Amino acid sequence: MGMNNLNKMMKQMQKMQAQIAKLQDELGERTVEAAAGGGAVVVTANGRQEIVSIKIDPDAVDPEDVEMLQDLILAAVNEALRQSQEMVAKEMGKITGNMRLPGF
Predict the structure, then answer these.
(1) How much is the pTM?
(2) For 42, which of 13, 55, 67, 97 could close a Cys bridge (C-beta 3.0–4.6 Å)?
(3) Cα 27 from chain centroid (whole Å)
(4) Residues with Cβ < 8 Å from 76, sequence gap 6 or more?
(5) 3-29: per-residue pLDDT in tens?
């Protein structure tokens, strides 16, 4: 009886592993967008927590206040990454039943 349960659990883990691999590929194609400064800086990140684009409104570029632009970029990047991590956690939770798996 115990060996049968172990085999069943191993098959379920293999199925989950395959689902996670497929989801990781899909999440690499999905993106989230975050803006700062009322849209002066817009950052797009994918589900691999990679920044795929940064758009800066030319009006936000003030040579006299570079620090503000840097702050806007930093805020938008951090928010995009946070949203990307949230998206990944939500989708992984659907597969894992919200089990915490190392490395995800």
Answers:
(1) 0.75
(2) 55
(3) 8
(4) 34, 35, 36, 37, 41, 42, 43, 54
(5) 788 888 888 888 888 888 888 888 889
